[in-house]
Amino acid sequence: MDRDTPGPGGGPGRGGPGGGGRRGRGRRRGGRGLGVSVTAVGGTPEAEGAGRVTLTFAPSGRSVRVPPGVSVFDAASWNGIAVDSTCGGHGTCRKCRVRLTGPAPVTAHDERTFTAEELGSGWRLACLVRATEDVEVEVPPLVTRPKASTVGVGRQVILHPAVQKRYVELTEPSLADQRTDLARLRDAVDDLVLEPDLYALRRLPVVLRHSDFKVTAVVVDEALVDVEPGDTTGRRHAVAVDLGTTTVVATLLDLGTGTPVAVASMLNRQQPLGADVITRISATMLDRRALARLTELAQETLVALVEEVCAEGGVEPAEVYEVALAGNATMTALALGVDPEPLGVAPFVQASADWPVLRAADLGLALHPGARVVVLPALGAYVGGDIVAGMLASGMDRDSRVRLFVDVGTNCEIALSDGERIVTTAAPAGPAFEGGAIRCGMRAADGAVEVVRLDATGPDPATAVSLGVIGDVEPRGLCGSGLVDAVSELVRVGLLDASGRFVPDEVAASVAPALADRMARVGDGERVFVLHRPSADAPAAACVHLSQRDVRELQFAKAAISTGWSLLLEELGLVASQVQQVLLAGSFGSYLSPASAVRIGLVPALPVLRIVSAGNVAGEGAKMVLLSQRERTGARALLEEVTYVELSDRADFNDRFVDQLAFPP
Amino acid sequence: MDRDTPGPGGGPGRGGPGGGGRRGRGRRRGGRGLGVSVTAVGGTPEAEGAGRVTLTFAPSGRSVRVPPGVSVFDAASWNGIAVDSTCGGHGTCRKCRVRLTGPAPVTAHDERTFTAEELGSGWRLACLVRATEDVEVEVPPLVTRPKASTVGVGRQVILHPAVQKRYVELTEPSLADQRTDLARLRDAVDDLVLEPDLYALRRLPVVLRHSDFKVTAVVVDEALVDVEPGDTTGRRHAVAVDLGTTTVVATLLDLGTGTPVAVASMLNRQQPLGADVITRISATMLDRRALARLTELAQETLVALVEEVCAEGGVEPAEVYEVALAGNATMTALALGVDPEPLGVAPFVQASADWPVLRAADLGLALHPGARVVVLPALGAYVGGDIVAGMLASGMDRDSRVRLFVDVGTNCEIALSDGERIVTTAAPAGPAFEGGAIRCGMRAADGAVEVVRLDATGPDPATAVSLGVIGDVEPRGLCGSGLVDAVSELVRVGLLDASGRFVPDEVAASVAPALADRMARVGDGERVFVLHRPSADAPAAACVHLSQRDVRELQFAKAAISTGWSLLLEELGLVASQVQQVLLAGSFGSYLSPASAVRIGLVPALPVLRIVSAGNVAGEGAKMVLLSQRERTGARALLEEVTYVELSDRADFNDRFVDQLAFPP
User: What ipTM does this complex have?
Assistant: First the structure.
């Protein structure tokens, strides 16, 4: 929510309605859904929407319930109902005209905008009138055609990018009108602030005089970055980057329509210097030159991806005016050339939570010379810009439900909202989910087992194990979701006990006769469960298997995570059963089976329909800040709204961790 | 004057007192003086200070008269009386404590700053209390030691540079205090805004941890440009540049003391592409590559000068954090790489009046990586940043006297203030003053005649002509001031009539017997006056002489100028005799003999004591914007306060021009 939005009495700037634009009118209870319902689903009386007012928009017929005092414009925007506006609801453009059925105060701006007759029949500026009681709102057809785009977890975002273009036909100067070129342009573009780049000032006199004073002003936020000959308003692009430790994904967006034009991904070229955040930080501590090298490699990755999406989308790089970068704190620091060492050692301190707007050239990107890079801010050394992007994309700050956000990975970021407050933490889950420290572990690539189903008592041992394998090829190993599935199934059928130990052979033969022959020992006698035999006579060690130590690794990982969310629940005075939605985020979380996650205790024991794969929310959040200045403000506001809870500081962490090692009964 | 300064009732933000800090108490009338008196000298009753109030400052005993309503802090600042302050009088630092003898309202800030007893005995914050009646003001000894520096035409400037340093000793982070490095620094530097450059963010974590968290924050305006290990507050420099068409002058300033450390000048390296503004603009119109070349040459000039002053002053370039650039509109455009063509052809339009703050690197300057360049804004295509700097340095906006500012040159800039309003214009004087189009003309270099005195009736023809020659060498030619002197003297002695024609030989013999033998003819019979014969038998053409056509050139030049100021006088409803001070500015104006300037009608016919050489006011103004943010705001405010009058637009210009060709009777 924007900071300048008047919030309801209780929590300033919080508790507003979420997305849910696709829902139609009325209330809706329960059910699995990515879209955010406009009224609360279950929960406390406040969350039920007590004290809210209902706005019904015509001609769409859509109804929304919002806290009293919210402006009609914001209520519409939050719900994906497009109201004309070029200033974004700041009371300056006077375009957001709506007609209300009920009485509403008349402001000075209204008086300047409407005739007395119009005022009498209920016309007001939507950004200045507050919803104080139930009312119907007539929204005229759009003139400036704001568009909405569905992004993230069912969020509808009204397009209002920082990148704006205005085509103007200027009067030519004369001795009677010696206004400077810039003043002339500013007078014509009266709804935007134009603070010129030197580059734009260099182009201005030349372009004006070579195109009969018919030009397009290109503005990024408040910077005039260029003046283009003729009308180029239809060409306006930006690139959203999800800067992952392993994989980097770039999406080229058409800012006029809000749609992706091209997507490309590649391995982060920093990989050779370390598979994860900690090894890369270590590299910089061991070798003075490593930071420069890592920065170079990050930038090479970005350059290659940006070239690829531009080529694929048929877009000139000079038509890309903005880049958004969402990465964890370490990836962000490395890409910007900032020493990450303080992130890697206690007390885990960032150089800065927020970053200045950079030039694309600072990152070596050959886009428009004035192109800017907006870097998603971070909440802590281990809750980075990727997570802020994820919170934005999943509407963590705009939903009145109790929601738990879990981005599963080597470092697991967790956020919990009770609809008023948001708390967040990071749990050191270790490499188990990415295949590290797991005997047959591998990344989620071709040949990785990602789904495991066991039939312990069926008649045919040959079909007692069903495996889902990426690429539908011969299984080669076990990726994170397969690991969780395998352990979860072994617990379910009774081959693993609640403490995580393989049961004795005689118990195995009794509880799971069809699977008993898969219990084996390898090497020093460690017990394993064979998932796949490449040939009938292959020894267990040559098979895809799960070992006792693998189970322990997973237990450590899931205990770290569940300790995290259980502490957050406590922080907000909640119990697990009150959680109304769990969002599993990130490249790993999105593939996880909700049932297995519940079974091993990775997430609270809830009906599986409440557990939702959120997808690549980091990338979606990066898109959102490009598509909407309002969302960008919202991302910054999260820095103030979210409380970071440091786990390593807690005396009771180890006790709790041990408590969480066992699997739920 | 700052825009945020509460002005007197009549002209907002105008009419405040000027400098004059060196004057001692009481009023002072008339007399030649560069310092600006605090009360009006002659003129209208308003200019006499009617309705003003007198503030007497203790312990200095200084009295100043200011318009009622001005804050005590501003009244002191304008008069060079240092009052403690770190916020510059904006009501935030609560350091500007003064004790007043009379009653004064108590603000909420006062209540938070002083005890009841202190309030009772008259203590108030100087920036919040307004002068409404005569009062005595006790100023405590300084704690933060603001210093004042005398700059420009007797202006006292309180040092408050945009470049600020703060030494801080930070507490080290812990798990209980995980503030980011930037937040930690911001919390410690609470009187400045710190918006970090990427460079500063890169340095921050490293420098903090390598210097025990004892660092100096380097701030330029609101940008955090660096964090330096230990206490470097004593090292703070900037370079002021007067970017002339002919000569470029750089002054290295110590911002801690306000004093110049080194000065260097050199010919503008653009010279080979054209001696003046118009030929350089033409060069860019004839050759597409010329603009890039001219920009390169301007930057080479700046680089060489900056290197020279740093070397001479023993200052590391990395200790220079800011550069101020004052040049005419064309020199500024060329240095910044902006096409100057629209400046050179009607309707004479600038790309922009004001320029964004640039990085020194944008101009190729290897100073501190975060060093900024502030470019003085321009009032019109022919009243550039050099003139804005000159107005600042001469206090045109802070003086209640009627003052005329004339920067004599190829393009002559003229400004007139009546104490309330300022009007300005540019007159195309042509190259006469720079030796161009004058038969024996030369630049003001060794061998140039700069002073001419004639004794028409003395006994000895050998001593009838006294010449002042630059470098005390054999005369080689005539520079601008020598030209004005020569013509003025020839008019005085009667060898030139009022229309500018040499008198017939018989008249010459009668009115100036000692000089008659110097009247000669050359080439096609043109009449000349011989100023210096290299040998007794040298023909007139081989002598340093002044020709009839030379006189005509000067007449054209001075007529353009006097048409300019006479139109400005008319614009403000004044007559010439009301002008209380004429400031002759620029490298030429400063050498001009006031008497000769009056005699030929270049300036109004006033007592010579009212005609003052102002020196290199462009360079002084550039220094002022480096030494004082208040003055920098004042420079920008001039864009709003000054009205530009376009001469080429006036139907009556030619008539008036012809009227002005003759010399005054």
Answer: 0.79
